[in-house]
Amino acid sequence: MKTVYVFSGGIVVKSRKDEVLEILKTNPNEQTAQTLVDQLNVDRTNISRYLNELTKEGLVKKIDGRPVKFQIASVTAETHINFDNLIGREESLKSQIQKSKAAILYPPRGLHTIIFGETGTGKTMFAECMYRFAVSANVLDETAPFITFNCADYAQNPQLLYGHIFGVKRGAFTGAEENREGLMEKADGGILFLDEIHRLPPEGQEMLFTFIDKGTFRSLGDGKEKHASVQIIGATTETSSTFLSTFNRRIPMQIELPSLEERSLDERLAIIKEFLQQEANRLMQEIAIDKRSLLAFLLYQAEGNIGQLKRDLKLVCAKAFLHHQTSNDSEKLMIIEDDLPLVVQKGLLRMNDVQDAMLPFMDKRNLYLTLKPGTEEVVWGQDPNKDMEVYHSITYKLEKLGRENLSEIDLEELISDDVDQYFENYVEELSHTNAYREIISDELWKLVNELYDFAANRMKRDYDEKVRFAFALHINSTIERIRGNQFISHPNLNDIRRNYSKEFQIAIEFSNRIEEAYNIMIPLDEIGFITMFLTMDNHEKQKIDERQVAVLVVMHGKSTASSMLETVQELLGTTKGFAFNMPLTVGTETMYSQIKNYVQQKREEFSEGIILMTDMGSPNNFGNLIFHEMGIRTRVISMASTMLVLESLRLATLGRSLEEIYTSVMTMFQTMVRLEEPTKKDEKKVIIVACFTGEGVSKRLNEVVSQIVNLDEYEVIQMQSLEREGFKHRIDQLVTHKDIVAIIGTMEIHYQKIPFIPAMDLFKRDKILEFQDLIGSTITLPEMVDSLTNDFTPELDVKTLFLMIDDVLKLLRRDNELIIENTAIQALSIHIAFLVDKVKKEEERPLFDDVKYFHQENILFFNQVASKLSLIENQFSVRFTEDDIAYIVKMLVDNQVKFGLHTV
């Protein structure tokens, strides 16, 4: 609520809320609501309302107790982040700061800059520091703009992107009723920061390059050139070595920010202290973090770098605030080990590895690190944590639930889940949206959300993003299966229809919408699977018997089992399950002894039986041993994958029996590896496109491969590599009657010495050329020489000629990143070979129409081709005419494979 002034007879009268604030300012001591009631003679309800509003606005501090007291909040000095107070300025960021200052000061208007760094390393903040340095160095005026724009927002809509950056002229398109200024004009005289610059589509790159090269641009629909003085700072998560060469050439200054793991412990401690200090200042409350919690934050692996560190610190501060609000145990907010996220707690496992390095950080006299409010605060630019939203949310819910006479224990239990959920997507940098958008189209994601919103309304149940994402993956796979005539049967369809009749009816409606959107027919079995997704609900508290089947994962490797189980636990939101890692240095007997002792000590937890998940070898025998030695029923599922562990643990937490789980999971496994037999075409070589989930990028990879190779010579087969053993079994079947020349996959797979090509290589021109050279052609070069030798002049060394032509064409393709289908390359090789023969025989060759014009139009490439052909001329004592070379250039240009790269 803003301060309200009432004008009466020319006299300004302050509002009651203003008077409350004035009294608290005049008397900085703690005061109760009743004291203010007595002073102002106002209804207590209104005083309480004013005090709560002032507290939410951060102007007043609320002190819990009996009675609750209020005090004016002290105002602390704020300093915007800049290079002078940036953590790491004399250590890990020293060279980066020097380079950025040089970029700002470079005459006449600075150098355009690219900032490289992983997600969460502080690229946006570093760009803001560059801007503030430019202002302090008088390179930019104090009023100079700093405009930020995320290129990913419009990556799929080039026209909208163009209009947003460069502006729109009235009438440019339907609905453009007025001239609209673009970001380039808004940033004139300042800096334009383009985040995720690698997401610019080709059209966006071209228009940006035109501005960089000439300093001019055109608004959409406007033929008139405009000028602007703007320094471009881009940011990308790509590495400098793999970044687009077009950007590297045009943007000279490149700065790489280190990951959090690469920075010193001193710097990490400083970041932790600074953030906790900010929270203490915002809450006007002392915050203490115990020694083990601080150690955990110093040592854990934050995959999202500083962004994740801040997110996790914010989470524990919120939990500490919640504890403080629901108990009177301490005057300060206490951060304790039990409140740390699991990933942070794991940092303590690294203590033995870095004991010596940790000594300087730990004062043995103190058990806590304490931060008191009032210390000068450094404000991080564009810091989404700057507001008090989460703390106000907690306070509001406590007050609301308190009015319903719930106990303090109930309050904390009910709210803590909300706090965890609030932070799941708190920091945008850590959002996995971009990751799964690579394999789920916007169209499908929109449809899935519409379907689940409909189901949520019908069922009066919430379905969170994890459930929706899992369903989207499933539907993506279902559409591919149906279109490929691959059908699967549901093992318990009748039970599903009987036990979940409401969900089954909604699943039928789902299937109608999907059929309409994708022009397919969904069989009844698939509707059964859709029903199962509708029964999944991460938020619904199901009353399940505490005695459950235990899921025990045993796998070879130092962390294979624990990593897999942890992933599954996080997906399901449970702590159930047991993992045993089996390093190769540990013998089978030793491993079994460890498992046996563990099961005996916690025998009650295994009373309903054990699902033993193994990868291979001797652990497969542990099930029989456990049953015979301890009498505990055990079912073994070998060749376990994340998907199978996920399903096993999900069913176990739902209280399913041992046999139900085993039967269901084994059916799932058989379904996963049951793929349609390919058409037998033994004369064709085979290229396998293997995708981890069998969805998403597989179609795009297939399209790219199909353009690179001759489909008369090669067969491209899509396969699922989620279950490795099933995938290898399928390869074993194919290799008996097919010549498999390569496996292209999203995850590395090496089997039977078949060459493996990473999927992303097919989106890089230099790698595509290597791929073409690898697979070669149906007709080999020696075969070509043997079949054509009799057609050439006897004194001509045909073998040497073809070898040299092959080398020349490889040089031309690689130097110019030309992607040409292999049959076209063979045809060109034969053409050049016979051209040499004709020159030798002094036979007449055809003239090329308008050769001078064609030469001038393609002068750079024409000269490159002529230069490479000179190798053949010198070797065989021939000279090619301008017409001869023009025909070769035209064949190279006309036979290029053209498709969009970097679009997966």
Automatic annotation (TrEMBL):
One of its GO terms (biological process) is phosphoenolpyruvate-dependent sugar phosphotransferase system. Residues 548-673 form the PTS EIIA type-4 domain. GO terms for cellular component: membrane. Residues 439-544, 792-902 form the PRD domain. GO terms for molecular function: ATP binding; DNA binding; kinase activity. PROSITE patterns: PRD_2 (PS51372), PTS_EIIA_TYPE_4 (PS51096), SIGMA54_INTERACT_2 (PS00676), SIGMA54_INTERACT_4 (PS50045). Signal peptide: none annotated. Keywords: ATP-binding, DNA-binding, Kinase, Nucleotide-binding, Transferase. Residues 86-318 form the Sigma-54 factor interaction domain. This is DNA translocase FtsK.
